[in-house]
Amino acid sequence: MEPFRPEQFHDEYQARVLELIKSKSSGDAAPKHEKAKRLAPVIDLMSALKKSLAEKGSRNASKASKLRRPRKTA
To answer: Which helix (H) or strand (E) covers residue 21, if one does?
Structure first.
């Protein structure tokens, strides 16, 4: 495991508060920030699990039906 390197991280909240304090102390308006980045869509794990189990169940059922067929004898 790699050692913790705090310099790799940036405290966005603290930076924005300091920027706000500086702008207010100089008499300027509050700085405007761009909108937050859109995050990746959230996957519903329960529906993914149910779908996976349903697919697995249908594959097992078809395999089981193939295995249960009686063999033809001569």
So the answer is: helix 12-25
